[in-house]
Every structure is written in structure tokens, then in C-alpha cells.
Amino acid sequence: MGLLATLSFLPSVLHLEISNTRRTLASLESANYSVRASRPHHAQTPPPSSYAEQAFDINITELVRRIGLDDDEPLTEQPQVPPAPQPSPVSTLPPEVLSHIFACCIPQEQFPVPCSTEAPLLLSHVSGYWRDLTLALPHLWTALHINYKDPASDIAFASLWLSRSGNQLLNLSIAIDFNERPQQGIIDVLCRHAPRWKHVRFDFRHLFCEPMYSLDLAQNNIPNLKAFEFHARDVSNTNVWPVTHLLSSAPQLREITWVDDLADTDTLLELPLYNLTHLSLAMDHGSLDYLEVLEQCENLEHIRISRPFSHTPAGREPLVLPKLKSVNISYDLTNVLDHLVLPGLREVMISSDGDKQIQVQPHSYSQSLPHLPPLPHAYAEGPVPASASTPSIAPSEAPVDGWDPTGHARTLLAQDECLASLVGRALRAAG
Ligand SMILES: *[C@@H]1O[C@H](CO)[C@@H](O)[C@H](O)[C@H]1NC(C)=O
Ligand SMILES: *[C@@H]1O[C@H](CO)[C@@H](O)[C@H](O)[C@H]1NC(C)=O
Ligand SMILES: *[C@@H]1O[C@H](CO)[C@@H](O)[C@H](O)[C@H]1NC(C)=O
Ligand SMILES: *[C@@H]1O[C@H](CO)[C@@H](O)[C@H](O)[C@H]1NC(C)=O
Ligand SMILES: *[C@@H]1O[C@H](CO)[C@@H](O)[C@H](O)[C@H]1NC(C)=O
Predict the structure, then answer these.
(1) CA distance 410 to 283
(2) Which residue puts its alpha carbon closest to atom 13 of ligand 2?
(3) Which domain of life does the UniProt lineage start with (predicted)?
(4) Confidence (pLDDT) at 73
(5) Largest Cα span, the chain
């Protein structure tokens, strides 16, 4: 909605402001900006020589190139500059300061929805000078969510936005309802910038069909991709494959969020699990062998799983995940923890459907419950299979790093017997 509103607004603004852009540029050029980074104005003291290196010059040639006015008459032919009106205080701020202020105006969300009443679009509508400056600052254009609806306008809009982001790394999110039809145009726009992808989120719907799109432009071309989120609804395996195939070519990928209503262990095993530090899984149907997936995740530090039910054959060898620090798991999946040995565990969260969440943290424990008995010796020594029997709580001389999971489980037990038994099981995994 915001996107469409913005699109209908943009052309008129562009049209209106073209006429006075040249004047603004002329005055910019005659002023010959050379702004030095946040330096106090002590007129008598010459700046240390190192300041010279920090000088931040506005490159007028580059500015003109960016707003697309350099293709006809050259700027040396300067139009008449009309007498300047009395400047308002804000207009006297040097561009370097303004650019910092502008950066603070960008919405905080990871993938902001473009909106003409918010930065950066709003900033570009204030005055010709602000517009020029906004368009010349690539870091204002590095995060974007596209709710794709209309090929004609959305493709043009996305291309324009991304072209303004210069060579900065990108946080990009797109939601596409394919409706079983190809939408390659918009995908190609994003893929052309694949080398700059850093955090990317795809929300794909209605692709329960033959292969319908390709990510070839991005394949082997995503050196900076650090985090990827996939939200799929009614997407067939053949249409999930381009995504898993793409991710296998991402050397820096460390975080994956996979929300797929059609659970499938084989698909997850195609992901580059070995290097991941963060994995979040949520699926509405089917079942999954979590151990088979986690077995590949040797470097995992944080895991969040809420669906589907697990199918873990009894009698499996416990799996050691040496680096796992935090677990966020839904209450009906806690039996997975019986099969895990987690020597580095620091935090367990158990969520229920009603969003009730129990959070166990070492620090809150040691502050609020200082008198509970310390960890039994064996637990302080090293990993113990989570399936070991409940330890007896006995005083011990072994120093403990501030966390007694068994003691905490007992406290919780007093509050809520059912949930606490689950927590107890999770805590035994803490070893
Ligand atoms: C701008 O400043 C530079 C360096 O101080 C100088 O070489 C150049 O001639 C100036 N340009 C104008 C248009 O005043
Ligand atoms: C200014 O930008 C132009 C065009 O992008 C570039 O060719 C030129 O080298 C730049 N000048 C300076 C001083 O950076
Ligand atoms: C991208 O998102 C991450 C959080 O996931 C954030 O730390 C980073 O600042 C964002 N980058 C941009 C350019 O918005
Ligand atoms: C893991 O990360 C390293 C370093 O970035 C990379 O070279 C390697 O290809 C990655 N391995 C896998 C299986 O993705
Ligand atoms: C834990 O996961 C649930 C859903 O699976 C989520 O709603 C909640 O925000 C997560 N908590 C944290 C602290 O990540």
C-alpha cells in the first residue's frame, strides 16, 4: 500500500524538482564545499595535519551523475543565481552533519517498507538541496522490503532504489505471491545486486507447480550473504530447490531462518548447515528428524525450533553440539533435548502456543537465587548425556560458573509442574 502511494507520488516530485535542481547545483558548485569531519571551529588554531586526510568533499560531478542531469548541457554554463532568501537555521548545516542526521532518521526495522512519509523518501521531498544530498548518500538506501504486487511499478521502483544504494551491502526482503506464474522480472532486479546481499528474506507463496523462477544471476555470486530467511507457503520442492542450491554457494552464510509449511528433512540437509551459527526452523505440517539435521550443524550457537513434530527413533546415540549457547524450543518438542549433549548451553527458552515463555538464564539465576546448592561435581566436569538420570542434588566443592540448572528446574517445578518437568529435561541437557 505504502509502495503504491509512493510510486504515484514520485514522478510528480521528480518532475517538479528537475527545474530547480540545476540552480541548486550551480550554487553548490560555486560554494565549493569542503567539509571536514566534526572539527571545532577555533579560528586561530590551525588543524593538525591529519585532518586534511579526513576531509569530506562533496563531488559535484558525482552528484550530477547520480541525479541524471549530466547527459545534456554541461554545468559550466551556469544559469543566473537569484538573490538567496534568508536561510533557515537548518539549511546552514553543512552536508556532512546533515548526512549524519539523515542516517538517524532511517527506520530501525531490518527491512523497512518504503513510505513517502518516512526517511529516506520523505527527506528527498523537502527541498532541492535535501533531495540532492539524500540521493548522493548511498547508506540511506541499503534496507528495503518490497511487497510485490504490480510488475510495472514495483520493478521500476526497486531498480531505482537499489541503484541509489551505491556499493553498500544490502538488507533486502521481498514478498511475492506467484499465483503459480513466473515473476522473473523482479527476481532479476534483486539478483543483479547479489554481490552486495547481506541479509536477505524471501517470502514466496503459491508455487505448487513446475519450476517457475530462477536465481541463476545470483548463483556463485553472493560472497557477502550472512543471513537468509525463507518463508514458503504452498511451494513445491522443485521451487524450493533454486533457493537451497543458491545458498550452497554462500561462503559467509551463518544464519538461516526456514519457515516452510511442508517440512522435509532432505530439503534441510541441502542447506550449508556446517558453517551455521544460527538456525531457526518453523514448519506447520509433516515431521522432521531434527537429529539428522543437527548432526550437520557442528558450529551452531543458537537454535530456535517451533515445528513440526519430531521423529527421532529411540536408542539414538546422543549428539554433542559443543558450541550451542541458546535454545528456544516449543514445549512439545523438548524430547529432542533428551538426545543432545550441550556443554556450552547458557540459555533455554521454552515457548508454548499461548506464547507463554519460560526463560532460564545463568545470570538471573545467580542473582535471584543465591542460596540453592551448587552443581553436582559430575556436571561441572564436562558433557553428560542429556538422557542421564536426574542427579541427586548434593553439595560439592567444584566451582560452578554461576549457574545451577538443576536448582533452577526445582524452583520452576514449584511454579508449574508440567512445564517445569520439561525445563528439567532441557536443563539436564545443559551438562
Ligand atoms: C575549489 O577548491 C579547490 C581546492 O581548494 C580549488 O582548486 C578549486 O579551484 C575550487 N573551485 C572553485 C569552483 O572555486
Ligand atoms: C568525482 O566523480 C567523478 C564521476 O563519478 C569521478 O570520475 C571523479 O574522479 C570524482 N572526483 C573526485 C575528486 O573524487
Ligand atoms: C541489516 O540488518 C542487521 C540486523 O539483522 C542490522 O544489524 C544492520 O544494521 C542492517 N543493515 C542495514 C544496512 O540496514
Ligand atoms: C564455510 O565457511 C568457509 C569460510 O567462509 C568457506 O570457505 C567454506 O566454503 C564454508 N563451508 C561450507 C560447507 O559452506
Ligand atoms: C522463541 O521462539 C518463539 C517462537 O518460536 C518466538 O515467538 C520468541 O520470540 C522466541 N524468543 C526469543 C527470545 O527469541
Answers:
(1) 32
(2) 59
(3) Eukaryota
(4) 47
(5) 89
